[in-house]
Amino acid sequence: MKRALGALCVCMSAAWGTGCSIVVDIPSECVESVDCPQVGADCREGLCTRVREFVQVTDPLRGNQRWTSERDYLLDETVFLESGVLTIEAGTRVFGARPQAALVVVPGAALVVNGTADAPVVFTSIRPPGSRSPGDWGGIALLGDDFINAPGGVDDLEGLPPEARTRYGGSASDPNRGCGTLQYLRIEFAGFRLFANQELNGLTLAGCGPETLVDFVQVHRGADDGIELFGGRAKIRHAVVTQPADDGLDWDQGWRGLAQFVIVQQRNSDKNGIEADNSETDASALPRSSPRVYNLTVVADNAPQTRSVGATLRRGTAGEIVNAVFIGHRGGSVQIVDRETQACALATDGEGPGCSQASGSFTGLDVRASVFVDGGTDGDSHFPTEFDFDPENQNTLEGFALHEWIGLAERRTETLPRGEAVLVDPLGRTSPNFAPRAGGPLAELSDLAESPPLDEEFDSTARFLGAIRSEAEDWTRGWTAFPVD
């Protein structure tokens, strides 16, 4: 038996809104309250329950604030953090009440999430378990003033009507300023569609500077992309995107940050694990998207008719993908779609017309030290030939053949056919296991991997394929969750 959340509205004085209470069911049956082992729990209708105080958060938020696990928080609208720092402590829960409910941090403000492995911070739907679905609420967006390559150097956050508070990008007057730090955070059942191609994602990082860190964050069952980056230089480590309705990790507008230890799990989708663009309006715009992505696992569980893709690289993106594992993509493990992007790929090998870069960025586009498993409709067609040079196709670059480029010996890549059990249980719906199978193909191919760069931004010891070294070192355990509804 499940009881819907929401009851006992008790007004209280709070700077950020009206306080009420939520009745929370605990999975323990009872006859009397003494049967409930949980502190503060009462027996109601045969279930242990606890009445938790919650605060209804209202727009706008200004100044330094702290949310704690002593109460829950309810977003009933789009709430903008206009100034100061919002700090959210370990174990805190935030509920979204409707599709338009979202938390947006404007440039100059910052969000700090201090979750732990034992007590992550959770943003989820107000609907009771069993009736939750993608798009129940909007999501989280962090906006900064770091460089983006949109016309004029600024843009408005997609998914919301444009106004002064939705604008990001600019001059980066403080080149190191970040949008905040998110650690041990789960975002569930988010995403809001304003209209076509205008949606809020589970987590959006737009124009966020290099001090922005996303570390141990899961986005589960979102209605749009899991994590999307628009320009800036934000850093991502230990990220899990599970069962998104659209792409897993998406970048655009000149993102030049880094990502390490990233997992994307797709289910019955025609979308992309990675969707990478430089600019939708000008493929040569600067600064060019040129992130460095190491230790990546992208898996897809698809019906034969689907056309999911491991990584679609297009619209002039540069960057590098290293130590990656792609499994089960019917539309191909990798696509390099157009002339501008193919030019960046050839530039990595000193060929082609070149790939202009902003100062200090990685030059060219590279995919190396990676393994591709069960790609294409037959399980062994990993790199679609429709993106190879064709004299009649004005959008392909002369001399470019994807399977030849990615198969060069110096790239150290390997393809495996359908049927290879590479990971323990990557397609599990409620308790997946993304660790490599002991004694499996990844162990045999370990010499393909390369050591990440020796600098403080990477874990340079992670010389292995995929996002997890072994089951014994599975960093996803304990703080992630995979509810169906």
What report would you give on this structure?
The protein is mainly β. The protein has helices spanning 339-348, 402-406, 441-444, and strands spanning 19-29, 42-44, 47-57, 65-67, 72-75, 78-81, 85-89, 93-96, 102-105, 110-114, 121-125, 139-143, 154-156, 167-169, 180-188, 192-195, 198-200, 203-206, 213-220, 227-230, 235-242, 249-252, 258-267, 272-276, 292-301, 309-313, 319-327, 334-336, 365-368, 371-373, 414-416, 423-425, 433-436. Helices cover 4% and strands 36% of the residues. The chain has an 18-stranded mixed beta sheet that branches. A 9-stranded parallel beta sheet has the order 6-9-12-18-20-22-24-26-28. It is globular, with a radius of gyration of 23 Å.
Name the average pLDDT: 90
Number of helices: 3
By oligomeric state, this entry counts as: single chain
Largest sheet: 18 strands, mixed
Q: Tally of extended strands?
A: 33
Distance between the termini: 15 Å
Query: Which segments are poorly predicted (pLDDT under 50) over 5 or more consecutive residues?
Result: 1-18
Helix content: under 10%
Tell me what portion of residues adopts beta-strand conformation: 35-45%
Round the Cα radius of gyration to an integer and report it: 23 Å
Helix-strand makeup class? mainly beta
Overall body shape = globular
